[in-house]
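Q: Joint fold for the lines below.
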Amino acid sequence: MLTRIKAHASRIRSWISRRQVDQEFEHELDTHLNMLTDENIRKGMAPEQARRAARVRLGGHTQLTETNRELRGLPMLETFFQDTRFAFRMLRKNPGFTAVAVLTLALGIGANTAIFSVVYAVLLKPLPFTNPDQLFTAFQANTQKGIAETGCSYPNFEEWRAQNHVFSELAGVLAHQLTLTGRGEPSVVHTSVVTPELFALLDVKPLAGRIFFPQDGKQGAPPVVLVSEDLWRGRFGADPQILGTSIDLDKRPFIVVGIIPAAFRTPFFNAKQEVWIPLVQDPVFSPFMPQRGVHLLPVLVRLKAGVSVAQAQAEMDAISGRLAAEFPAENSGWTVRLVPLQKEIVGDVRTELLVLLGAVGLVLLIACANIANLLLTRATSRSKEIAVRTALGAGRVRIIRQLLSETAVLGLLGGAVGVALAYWGVKVLSSLLPSSLPQMNPIRVDYFVLGFALLLSAIAGVVFGLAPAMSAANADIQTTLREGARSGESRNRRRTRSLLAVAEISLAMVLLVTAGLLLRSFARLTSVSPGFDAQHIVKADISLPQFEYSTPQQWAEFSEELLARIQSDPGLQDSAVVVPRPIADNSVKLPFDIVGNPPSSAGASRTASYVSVSPDYFRVMGIPLLAGRVFNQHDNSSAPRVSIISEAMARLYFPNQDPLGKQITFGFPRGSAGATREIIGIVGNVRDVSLGQSPGPMMYVPFAQAPLWGANLVVKSTLSTSSLAATIRQEVQRIDKDLPVTDVAKMPDLIDASVAQPRFRMFLLGLFAVMALVLAATGIFGVISYSVSRRTNEIGIRVALGASRNTILSMILREILILTLAGLAVGLPCALAASHLVGHMLFNVSANDPATLAAVAFVLAAVAALAGYIPARRAMRVDPMVALRYE
Amino acid sequence: MPADKSEILQGTLDLMVLKTLETMGPLHGYGIARRIEQISEEALQINQGTIYASLVRLTQKGWIAGAWGTSDNNRKAKFYSITRAGRKQLRTEALNWERISGVIGRVLGMAERG
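A: Joint structure:
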């Protein structure tokens, strides 16, 4: 072993100083030759003769130096350099081939790298917190009530803190929006409502000031706030004096105690958070804090070092058991579920991203198949060169190594260009990403992603290079040399080429079918009627500061005054308020009972989406009234409680009955607990959550009877959005100059934005499918045109013997047809398997939709025929005289 | 430990070079070649150049060391001498050789009888 290491070290040493070593060896041989010559002269030879005899005795000079070099130096390394140099020379000699191959590969690797950078940032890269694998979310679940995942009540959260021994820290976190006033225009800020431990738990270092301390969470503590670096730089102009001053949130002063770095993201909440306040100071959630039965607080925990998830789960099970025994009314049936934080954040985006990665991987495979095909074509024309090399003594392994060096260089070149494309692609991709994609880590081409690209190009180089290299090295030299310039293509190689073309077609089919299904699904999704007329509807958000407008009375009065002012404006007569607005990606589902029916049992409670609207809402939105009447001005807080239900609710809860006049009770909003409402009307269904979700039961209540502190103003008007926004802002601020009007948007744009995710996946898969189709078409074109050019001679003979042009054409077309059919036959089962993977993403389209399959098969066949048509035409025009002379 | 046991001739030449250097002291390539030819009573007419491959191999393994010096008739030549590791190697190799040649002799003798 030691000897071997010594030998290698010596080889490396002499390789480094190889010029000197060569000179010394030259000298040594020279001395030896002189000594031999002297000896021969002593024996009586003439000097000339003596020298010649000495040379014979010593052996061939070239051979000796060569052996010496091989023994002394690093032949592997030298061969490598030699091969690489040669590879570059060969690639430079065929710029057309090189450009096509590098570009094809660059597209494949670039697309893969770009998608991988998203996959890496979202799925693989650890969360940007200290020891992220210790972070979990603790959800409450209640199987009896059919609740899989919800928050924890604040009193229970305190029990968890006090009783557990497995977490080093626990924190609760919620988010909503508050109005920021003073210092410029009033605006709405994304607010995280947290228990003070959150920052210690996530090990966040403030940019300036401090993080929250435990006493900030106590009842009666002075209100404090942490602001984000972005808000500090933007709104507060990076004011160095901001710490210790106060800002107004919902018209209440909070003292700024710290600035949080821009890179920090609050887990769970995608929207960039701008301010953080202690839960105890929050106008919305703090009233619920004492209620043990209100499960609203998602809890984040950090396991103590060395504690396993199973131990933690066991401990939480025990605590849940104790709490259920102690407070059976609120806690019986409630358990705790620990989910790794990263898994919780990623959610179902995982499948989505993996499907994209798989699709883009297929594109790269097709690209590799294409390049392998090109290489095979070239290998055929290079077979003579290789035969000569073999004849001159190059071994099989040596030939394969040389050819693989060429493809490896090609792969790396493609990878380099691909990475450049990926940098650009990631930029484009980032602007396309749906906002629902969690981005705890920034999406970019970093070292890990670069490493992936390098690995990919190396693998690609071997994948597309191996088959051609093997086939070239296996060729029979004798035949090749004998055949001379017209080196025929071996059957073996032809079969490989056909197989590659078939593989390309079938892979392209997989992508086309998937993309086709998504396209069809998207078309169906966007053509679905939302149940209202979105045309010319503009909406704006108005939120009332809670500390100033704290009673339902004030909320109702405000909305009344606002609507009166706005409707008096010419062009804005068609306006109403609604909360929550349709297609808002969420809904408020409330349980209710029907008076006269037995109360619903646990686990099967009657629920409906609850919407509070002003009387004109149905007219403005074009929601049809099917029976009864709509709300009017008289349905105010002093009038009897009324409600309008949707058609779906009537069908579901009042089968074969007339719901009009029936009474329902439910316990929302605050203060109107147990209110009984009479059903006075039935309206058409509305897709309240999203276009893709079929309309569930809904109930509408008059805003005047069930006001909230904020609402969406909807206006139907042909005026421009900006002038509408200006008018609304003006009217709102005439009532209260500190009220912000935010998120002014056209309803059709909102509907459009609501399908951002399906559009994103459809766009990318469509793009990949088109790439695949183009690559497959090039592949077929390559195979057929090569086959035609090799068969020129044969075709010439056929024509000379009387074959008509049509016979020739059909001969070529048959070749294309066989390839295409084989590709489709292989592709079909693969495509079906792939389409079932995306089945859950489809809307109103079956995963094995026959129309899509047929369309894809037709497109592929047509493209294949087109790709083969050009070479087939060339075959038809073969002049027998030229063809026969063609040698 | 020869790198490749199948190449008996190469190994044999290396062994002869080692033995020559052990008995004769430092020698240059020509000297070694001459000496081997003389010892074998000119029966072994080697292509003298092959000595150099052997010298490179032995140097790499650290069994001999080379240094430039001046020959009898005042020529600059590279002189090789056996190292301590080389002597040790020679002893093992010599033992091995005797054993193998003994075995080969017996096998050949058996073949003659049979």
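Q: Anything notable?
A: The mean pLDDT of chain A is 85. Residues 667 and 674 of chain A are 5 Å apart (CA to CA).
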